[in-house]
Amino acid sequence: MTPAPTPTPKAAARLPVNSQVRIGHVHLKVANLERAIAFYRDRLGFQLTQRFGRSAAFLSAGGYHHHIGLNTWESAGGAPPPPGTTGLYHLAILYPTRAELADALQRLIAAETPVEGAADHGVSEAIYLRDPDSNGVELYWDKPQAQWPHTADGNLAMFTRPLDLEALLNESMGVTF
For a 10 Å CB count at each end of the chain, is N or C smaller? Predict the structure, then answer.
């Protein structure tokens, strides 16, 4: 493999990256493939698109080739990394609307999946949980950009406030408690 060329000052001046660039998928090392598939397919609703025997699987929303890759190539039977180590903090799954986020919450409730937290960040509303391998998972929707909070000088002013999950379900799904 040829090493990447060292960037020149002129190349660095091209920043920032194009605004259309997106993160396409996440690929996770898991201890138990079947358990991980069951979580992402049965609890979150992703579709299994392909398997590579008993060592890897790919899942997606809407027929895309994959949004989530799972494998046991280096991790079969392994333990999650201990606290205080580097690695993935969480993967974030973006839902197109608040109603779809409420539907995701309803799936978690129906599957008795524990939620670790829920927050309104001003720009988005998010639900936090862990997958079976203790990877952090954020389920969220972005509020319309016109509603994002800004400081007096125009800078983005994100915050973290509690998200009322009952209100999320009531408003978006007509659920009553």
Answer: N
CATH at 161: 3.30.720.110
- pLDDT of the residue at 12: 57
Neighbouring residues of 120: CB distance < 8 A, sequence distance ≥ 6: 159, 160, 161, 162, 163
pLDDT in tens, 128-176: 999 999 999 999 999 999 999 999 999 999 999 999 999 999 876 554 4
Q: Does 11 map to a domain?
A: no
Please write the tens of the pLDDT for every residue from 23-54. 899 999 999 999 999 999 999 999 999 999 99
Six-digit token pair at 91?
A: 């993967």
Burial (Cβ within 10 Å: 0-12, 13-18, ≥19) of residue 144: exposed
Return the SS3 of 33. helix
Q: Total structural domains in the chain?
A: 2
For residue 83, being part of any structural domain is answered with no
